[in-house]
Write a structure and sequence with these properties.
This protein has about 120 residues and is mostly beta strands. Helices cover about 5% and strands about 50% of the residues. The chain has a 5-stranded antiparallel β-sheet. β6 and β7 form a beta hairpin. The protein is globular. It starts with 6 loop residues before the first strand and ends with a strand.
Length: about 120
């Protein structure tokens, strides 16, 4: 996904940047103007986890704006946030509930299968 404002390079590597509500602590991605949990409007930028588990995925075969096919999936990040993200082939090969991690190439981010140590 080509949304360079959604990622930051930190000392720990690339991280997605979402919102954290100052009222309830709820985290959201992408950044929001209001908290989806409590409706609060005092939000601050928050680094999100770079690892998670594949919840669900699909392959898109028809698009009027980009080359197909490509894969999308819902990722449950380790900090509790669920995001929709582009996946590479390895992420899907890991299967549902397989571990995945954020990768960034040329400013574009996606998720790939996390290699087990």
């Amino acid at each position: 996904m080509d949304r360079a404002g959604d990622i930051a390079l930190t000392d720990a590597g690339h991280r997605l940047i979402g919102s954290c509500c100052r009222s309830c602590g709820g985290k959201n991605f992408p950044k929001r103007m209001a908290c989806v949990d409590c409706g609060g409007i005092e939000l601050e930028d928050a680094e999100l986890a770079h690892e998670g588990r594949l919840y669900s995925h699909t392959t898109v075969h028809v698009s009027s704006i980009r080359e197909t096919p490509y894969r999308l999936g819902y990722i449950d990040l380790t900090d509790g946030v669920r995001i929709l993200a582009q996946l590479d082939v390895a992420a899907v090969e890991g299967g549902i509930d397989g571990p995945v991690e954020l990768v960034v190439n040329d400013g574009n981010w996606s998720f790939t299968r996390k290699e087990q140590a």
